[in-house]
Write a structure and sequence with these properties.
The complex is a heterotrimer of chains A (761), B (213) and C (155). With 213 residues, chain B is mainly alpha-helical. Chain B has one domain. Chain B has eleven helices and four strands, in the order ααααααββββααααα. In chain B, a hairpin with a 4-residue loop joins strand 1 and strand 2. The longest helix of chain B is centred in the first third of the chain and has 15 residues. By secondary structure, chain C is an alpha+beta fold. Chain C folds into two domains: 74 residues, Ubiquitin-like (UB roll) (Roll), CATH 3.10.20.30; 72 residues, DNA polymerase, domain 1. In chain C, a hairpin with a 2-residue loop joins strand 3 and strand 4. The chains are: A alpha+beta (761), B mainly alpha (213), C alpha+beta (155). Chains in contact: A-B, A-C, B-C. The interface between A and C is large, with 66 and 61 residues.
Chain lengths: 761, 213, 155
C-alpha cells in the first residue's frame, strides 16, 4: 500500500460521535486520497487492472473486481456490500469477482464489522463509489466516441450510445476511465429503481465453503511457519509465578518455551485492547499437535495476582482502573449482586415524579431478572498469523476491526502503522468476540520474539476460558398501577458484573409519565466484551418478560398493551432523547401479529410468547410457539417481523434472522458460563451446552417491513427479543414465570417429572 | 447330559432345604433361571447341589453396585440414548442406539469412540466393540431395582440368549472390562474388576438368585 | 512409514501414529477443509469419511486410517457437484461457514444409508454437528433437497 497510513490520518477519517443512548455512530466519506490508478501495484500477469477507486478495478477484458471493505464473519457482507456497489455501477452481477479488500482505512473506509453497522455505514459511500465509477466510464466513452455524456447509457456492464449505435464493455473503457479524476456529488439512483439490491444473491464464497477451500484464519499458512500456543492461568485473578519447561522442551518438534509481557506497565489501553492475562507463557513448535502435546508437560506454578491496575485511554481522559484480585465464584457474585441491588445507584433517566407515583400506587409489581456470563464460542477458535521483523509486520487472520488493533500493534511492536499489514481472512464466527484483538497482538509479539512466521492458536479450552464474556446481569423492574390498573410509573434498576445493561432512553421510556432508570456495577477481573447486541440481549429478555407479566396483571393482551404504550409515546411522548421511533416499533408488532395469526381462534391452544425490541437502529419482534416434546420445552415455530429499512440481500437477511432466532433460543435455554474460585466451570462443548439440530424450531417465518428507509442494522436486532419471546412462551407452556437464565433445567423441574431425559424417542 | 446322583447330594441336602426356604420369595427368578433355559440343557441335581443362595445374594449385592455405576449403566440406559459422565446425564448430542446398538448414520459409536481411549480429559473413552445392547435386547440397567436387574440378567429371553456359561463369559468380555479403564477423570466402578468377576461368578454359580427387592 | 489413502491419493508419511488424523490432514498434507472446533469429538467440525463412516478426525489416530480409505470435504466430489454441495449452494445455507464441511460430511453418510430421510432421521444423524450461527433449519432443508437431487439422479 502506497499511502501514508499514520494513525492520525485515519483517525481524522473516522467521525465518531456518541449518541445519547450510547450507540457509536460512525460516518465517513468514501472518496480516496488519490483518484488515479497506481499501475505499479496489483498488476495481474494476465491483464491490466484499472482502478476506478478503492473498491473497483476493471480489467480490459471486462472482469470487474469489487473489493469488500469489511471483514466477513457470517453476516454475508462479502456479498451484500459489493451488491451495493454493483447497483450504482450498473455492473453485470454475474461477471463480478468479489475479493476481500486490503486493510486500508483511507481507500476503504472504517472496515469495522460490528454494531450491525456494516451495511448501515457503507450504504451511502458504496453507492457513491459505484455511481462515481460509472460516471467515469461514461465520461471515457463519451470522450472516445466524441458524443455528449448525457447521451451515453449503461446496462449490465455495457456502455451504449443509441444515436450512433456505438457500444462497448466497461472493460474497454476502464483504462481511460481510470485516468479521470473521481467526480463528487453524482446523483444516485432512486431507491424505487434498485435492481441488484433487494434481489437475493448467492453468497459469493458459497462454493469455496462447501468444497473446503482455505478461507479462514486457521487455514492460513506460510512456508516455515511455526505454531504457538499460550498457557494462560487456570483462573481469573491468577498469574504466572514460575514454570519448568524442561520436559516440554524435550518433546519432539518443540522450539521454545518463554514468557512475554503483552502490555508494558502503564500501557494506555483503548476500548478494544481488553486482555485478561498480561504475563504470557508461550510454547512454540512446528505442528499444532506437537505443541498441544508438549503443553501437557509444562510444569507451571500460578499465584494470586492480587489487585492489578489498568491504564485506560480511548474515550475520555486517561485514567487508572483497579482490577480486583478476588477469585470469584458464581454463587458469591450472585450474593454480591443482591447486596448491591439494595444500594443507591446512578440515576440514568428520570421523568415526572416516580417516587410519589409509587407511593400512591394501588398496586406495585416488582420482579428481578438475572442472567449469567456467556461465552461467544465462535466455531473457529481465536487464532492469528504473524510475521514480524525489525522492519515490518504482516498479520493475517480473523478480526472484526483491524483499524482498532493497528494502533495498538504499532505501539507494542514499535513500528509505524505503514509498516504493519493486516490481512483479513473470513472469520468462523465473531459475535463481537473478534473486536478484541489481544490474540493478534500476542501473535505479533511471539513472532517478533522467535524471529519467524508463527500462527497463534487458541484451543477450544483456551478460547472458552479466556473471558471477554457477555457480562453477568441483573435488573429489578417495578411498575405502579392505579386503582383502575393503569400504568402510572415504571422503574428499572439494573446492575452487572462488571457493567449494567440499562438503556435508559429506550422503550418504555417515553410512554410512561413517571419513569426512573438507574444503574450500578461491580468491578471484576472477569473480562467482558461485546456479545451480539451488547446489553440489549439482556434488556430484551428482562423487560419483555416483565411487560408480558404486567399485561397479564392488567388484563390486557400483551401486543395490545405494547401498542397502547407506543401510541402514547408517539402522540404525547414523555421526556426527551427517546431513541426509538414509535411508528416503526408498532409496525413490527402489527406485522408479527398479523403473520402469526395472534389471537385467532385457531391459535388459542398454542403456547405463544411475544416480544419486540429496538436496538442498532432496527426493530424486531417474534412470536414463539412452544410445546413440551419428550418432556422438554421445544420451540416449534417462530414468526419474526423485522424493520431494518431497505433489505439489501433478502434471502441472506432471512438466513441471518433465522440464525439469530436459533442462537437466541439456545442461549435462553442453555447458555451459561459459571465460575468457581475464578475457574470457569465450562471449558468445552461437553459442559457448555450449545443448541443442536433437534432443538432448532421446525419453522421460522421471517417477514421484513417493506419501506424505503436507508438500511439499518440486522446482525444484532433480531437476537435480543428472542430471549423475551421464549421466556413468555415458556410461561404459557409450563404455567410458571422464569427469571433466571438459562431456563432449560428449571423448565424441566416445573414439569414435575422426576427425571426428564432429553430426546428420548 | 447325564444325571448323576453322587455322595455329595446326600451330604448337602440340609443346605438345599435352607436354600429352598430362602428361595420361596424369589421363586419367580429361580424358576426362570433354571427352567427357561431352552438351549437343551436340563436342570440337574448336580447343579442344585451347588447352590448357595445366601452367597449368591451377597454376591449380587456387589454385582448390582457395579452394574448400576455409571461405567456400566451409562451404556444400559432406559431410553435409546446412552448416558454419560459420573452423573449419568444424557449423552451430549443424543446419539441413538440403532438396531445393532452401534449408533446410526453419522452418529455411530465408533465415529468418536476409538479402539482405545483417546488421551486427555473428557475425550471419548474407547474400545473396539463400543456400543449399547442391540434394539431387540436392550438389557436396560437404568432405573432397575436389584431384583428386576437380577431377573433380567438371568432371563435367557432378555439377556441376549445367554446361558450360564455365556453369562460367566460375559464378565470377561473386553467391553465389560473396559469399564475399569475409561480414561482420565472417570470414576471406576465401586469394586475392583477382579472382585467384580469373582462376585459375578459366585452370584451366577450359586443360582443367580434375585434379591427380594 | 504410514500409508494413507486420502481422496483416492496415496501418501506415505513418517509420522507419530498417535497423531490425530485431523492434524495430519491440516498440518502435514495441507487439506484444511476439515476444521478444528473442539478437539474432543463434541462439535463435528472435523468429520471425515473413514471407509464411508463419519469419523471425527480430532480423536481418530492416524494409525486407524492406515491402509483405509479416507475422504475429506475436498474429495467429496470432483466438481463440487455432490447432491449435498448442490443443495447447500441452492439454499445458501452457510453463514460463517466454518462448521459446514463437517455438516456436509455427516449428512453424506446419512444420505448413503437412507435415501429419503425424515426430519427425525436428520436429527439423529446430525445432532453431533454444532452450528454456532444457527443454520440448522437450512441444513435440514438442504438435506431434504439433496435427497431429492440424489433420487432424481439415480433414476
Amino acid at each position: 500500500m502506497e499511502q501514508s497510513k499514520s494513525t492520525q490520518s485515519r483517525r481524522s477519517f473516522l467521525k465518531s460521535s456518541l449518541l445519547a443512548g450510547g450507540g457509536l455512530m460512525i460516518s465517513f466519506a468514501w472518496l480516496p486520497g488519490v483518484g488515479l490508478a497506481d499501475t505499479s501495484k496489483d498488476v495481474d500477469p494476465a491483464e491490466q487492472w484499472n482502478e476506478l477507486n478503492g473498491y473497483i478495478k476493471i480489467s480490459s477484458d471486462n472482469i470487474i473486481r469489487i473489493f469488500n471493505p469489511n471483514p466477513e464473519f457470517g453476516q454475508n457482507v462479502m456479498t451484500s456490500l459489493p451488491m451495493i456497489i454493483a447497483e450504482e455501477l450498473e455492473a453485470d452481477w454475474e461477471k463480478i469477482v468479489v475479493e476481500m479488500g486490503p486493510h486500508d482505512n483511507i481507500k476503504l473506509g472504517p472496515q469495522f464489522t460490528g454494531g450491525s453497522n456494516s451495511v448501515r455505514m457503507y450504504w451511502k459511500p458504496l453507492r457513491e463509489a459505484g455511481a462515481a465509477a460509472r460516471h467515469m466510464l461514461i465520461q471515457a466513452a463519451a470522450q472516445t466516441w466524441n458524443v455528449p455524456m448525457e447521451e451515453v447509457t449503461t446496462k449490465a456492464g455495457m456502455l451504449y450510445h443509441a444515436k450512433s449505435g456505438k457500444s462497448g464493455t466497461y472493460g474497454s473503457f476502464a483504462s481511460k476511465a481510470s485516468g479521470i479524476p473521481i467526480p463528487q456529488g453524482i446523483k444516485l439512483k432512486d431507491v424505487k429503481n434498485l435492481n441488484v439490491v433487494r434481489n437475493s444473491k448467492k453468497n459469493v464464497e458459497g462454493s469455496k465453503i462447501v468444497s473446503g477451500k482455505p478461507l479462514f484464519g486457521l487455514d492460513y499458512k506460510q512456508e516455515g511457519m511455526l505454531i504457538a500456543m499460550i498457557q494462560h492461568p487456570p483462573a481469573f485473578g491468577m498469574k504466572l509465578q514460575s514454570f519448568d519447561a524442561s520436559q516440554a522442551l524435550q518433546m519432539p518438534g518443540i522450539k521454545d518455551v518463554f514468557t512475554l509481557e503483552l502490555y508494558e506497565d502503564g500501557f494506555e489501553q483503548g476500548g478494544f485492547d481488553t486482555r485478561t492475562f498480561n504475563d504470557l507463557l508461550v510454547i512454540v513448535g512446528n505442528t499444532t499437535w506437537k505443541v498441544m502435546n508438549a503443553r501437557k508437560k509444562l510444569i507451571v506454578q500460578w499465584e494470586a495476582a492480587g489487585d492489578t491496575k489498568d491504564t485506560m485511554g480511548g474515550r475520555g481522559a486517561k485514567r487508572e482502573v483497579i482490577v480486583p484480585g478476588e477469585l470469584e465464584s458464581t454463587s458469591t457474585q450472585f450474593e454480591k449482586m443482591q447486596e448491591y441491588a439494595k444500594k443507591p445507584a446512578q440515576q440514568l433517566r428520570k421523568d415526572g415524579d416516580p417516587e410519589t407515583a409509587f407511593k400512591n400506587a394501588a398496586q406495585i409489581i416488582e420482579r428481578t431478572y438475572n442472567a449469567p456470563f456467556l461465552a461467544h464460542n465462535c466455531m473457529e477458535p481465536m487464532n492469528f498469523f504473524a510475521h514480524v521483523t525489525d522492519e515490518k509486520a504482516l498479520l493475517a487472520g480473523p478480526l472484526q476491526a483491524p483499524g482498532w488493533t493497528e494502533p495498538t500493534l504499532s505501539k507494542i511492536l514499535k513500528l509505524p502503522a505503514d509498516k504493519i499489514e493486516i490481512q483479513m481472512t473470513r472469520m468462523g464466527g465473531g459475535f463481537g468476540r473478534r473486536a478484541y484483538g489481544h490474540y493478534l497482538s500476542e501473535a505479533a509479539l511471539i513472532s517478533k520474539k522467535v524471529k519467524a512466521p508463527i500462527k497463534l492458536i487458541y484451543t477450544r479450552e483456551d478460547d472458552m476460558t479466556y473471558g471477554i464474556y457477555r457480562p453477568m446481569y441483573t435488573a429489578t423492574y417495578r411498575a405502579a398501577l392505579d386503582a383502575n390498573k393503569n400504568l402510572i410509573a415504571f422503574h428499572v434498576k439494573g446492575g452487572g458484573i462488571p457493567e449494567h445493561a440499562i438503556h435508559a432512553n429506550r422503550f418504555p421510556a417515553g410512554a410512561v409519565d413517571n419513569y426512573l432508570a438507574e444503574g450500578w456495577q461491580i468491578p471484576s477481573n472477569i473480562t467482558i466484551g461485546a456479545f451480539r447486541a451488547p446489553r440489549s440481549n439482556f434488556n430484551a429478555a428482562a423487560e419483555q418478560s416483565f411487560l408480558d407479566e404486567l399485561a397479564e396483571i392488567m388484563g390486557k393482551d400483551p401486543i395490545d398493551f405494547r401498542l397502547e404504550l407506543l401510541k402514547r409515546a408517539k402522540e404525547n411522548p414523555v421526556g426527551k432523547n427517546n431513541e426509538y421511533d414509535p411508528d416503526r416499533y408498532a409496525g413490527i408488532l402489527k406485522l408479527v401479529k398479523q403473520k402469526s395469526g395472534w389471537g385467532k381462534p385457531e391459535n388459542k391452544n398454542r403456547n405463544r410468547g411475544v416480544a419486540a425490541y429496538f436496538c442498532h437502529n432496527s426493530y424486531a419482534a417474534h412470536v414463539v410457539d412452544m410445546v413440551m416434546k419428550n418432556g422438554h420445552p421445544f420451540v416449534e415455530s417462530v414468526y419474526s417481523a423485522i424493520d431494518c429499512g431497505i433489505v439489501i440481500n433478502p434471502d441472506a437477511a432471512t438466513n441471518m434472522v433465522e440464525g439469530a432466532v436459533i442462537d437466541g433460543i439456545g442461549n435462553t435455554l442453555f447458555g451459561r458460563l459459571s465460575h468457581k474460585d475464578g475457574v470457569p466451570e465450562q471449558n468445552n462443548f461437553h459442559s457448555y451446552r450449545m443448541i443442536r439440530h433437534s432443538e432448532a424450531p421446525n419453522k421460522i417465518e421471517v417477514h421484513f417491513v417493506q419501506n424505503d428507509i436507508d438500511p439499518t442494522g440486522l446482525g444484532e436486532p433480531p437476537f435480543p427479543p428472542v430471549f423475551g419471546a421464549v421466556a413468555n412462551a415458556l410461561y404459557k407452556t409450563t404455567n410458571r414465570r422464569y427469571y433466571n437464565q438459562p431456563f432449560f433445567e428449571q423448565a424441566l423441574q416445573s414439569t414435575n417429572k422426576p427425571k426428564i431425559r432429553r430426546s428420548i424417542q | 447330559m447325564k444325571i448323576k446322583f453322587g455322595k455329595k447330594l446326600l451330604f448337602s441336602l440340609k443346605k438345599v432345604i435352607i436354600v429352598i426356604t430362602v428361595m420361596v420369595t424369589v421363586i419367580g427368578l429361580s424358576a426362570s433361571a433354571f427352567r427357561t433355559n431352552n438351549d437343551g440343557e436340563t436342570v440337574t441335581r448336580e447343579k442344585l447341589d451347588k447352590i448357595d443362595s445366601v452367597a449368591s445374594l451377597a454376591a449380587f449385592e456387589k454385582v448390582y453396585k457395579v452394574l448400576m455405576s455409571p461405567r456400566c449403566m451409562n451404556c444400559h440406559p432406559a431410553g435409546d440414548i446412552p448416558l454419560q459422565g459420573d452423573d449419568s446425564h444424557i449423552h451430549t448430542m443424543s446419539p441413538m442406539r440403532g438396531k445393532d446398538g452401534k449408533g446410526v448414520y453419522a452418529m455411530k459409536c465408533s465415529n468418536c469412540h476409538q479402539p482405545s481411549n483417546s488421551p486427555g480429559l473428557r475425550t471419548p473413552p474407547g474400545n473396539p466393540k463400543w456400543g449399547l445392547p442391540p434394539a431387540d435386547m436392550k438389557m436396560v440397567f437404568e432405573g432397575k431395582s436389584a431384583r428386576e436387574l437380577a431377573l433380567q440378567i438371568m432371563d435367557y429371553k432378555q439377556n441376549g440368549h445367554k446361558n450360564k456359561a455365556k453369562l460367566i463369559e460375559h464378565a470377561r468380555d473386553t467391553l465389560v472390562k473396559a469399564g475399569w479403564n475409561m480414561g482420565e477423570g472417570r470414576k471406576p466402578p465401586p469394586l475392583a474388576y477382579k472382585d467384580f468377576v469373582e462376585a459375578w461368578d459366585e452370584w451366577i454359580n450359586n443360582g443367580g438368585i434375585a434379591p427380594k427387592n | 512409514m504410514l500409508k494413507l489413502n486420502i481422496n483416492k491419493k496415496n501418501y506415505e508419511l513418517n509420522i507419530d501414529p498417535d497423531t490425530p488424523l485431523l492434524w495430519v490432514l491440516r498440518d502435514v498434507i495441507g487439506l484444511v477443509g476439515t476444521k478444528y472446533g473442539c478437539g474432543v469429538a463434541q462439535c463435528g467440525a472435523c468429520v471425515v469419511h473413514l471407509n464411508g463412516e463419519a469419523v471425527r478426525s480430532c480423536v481418530t489416530k492416524v494409525s486407524r486410517a492406515a491402509g483405509q480409505q479416507v475422504v475429506t470435504i475436498e474429495g467429496l466430489s470432483v466438481n463440487n457437484d455432490h447432491p449435498l454441495q448442490k443443495a447447500w449452494l441452492e439454499l445458501d445455507v452457510s453463514q460463517c461457514g466454518y462448521c459446514q464441511a463437517g455438516q456436509i460430511m455427516s449428512a453424506a453418510v446419512l444420505l448413503n444409508e437412507n435415501k429419503n430421510p425424515t426430519d427425525k432421521d436428520i436429527n439423529n444423524a446430525m445432532e453431533g454437528n454444532i452450528c454456532r450461527c444457527g443454520t440448522y433449519l437450512r441444513i435440514h432443508q438442504a438435506i431434504h433437497l439433496a435427497a431429492e437431487i440424489q433420487r432424481k439422479g439415480s433414476k
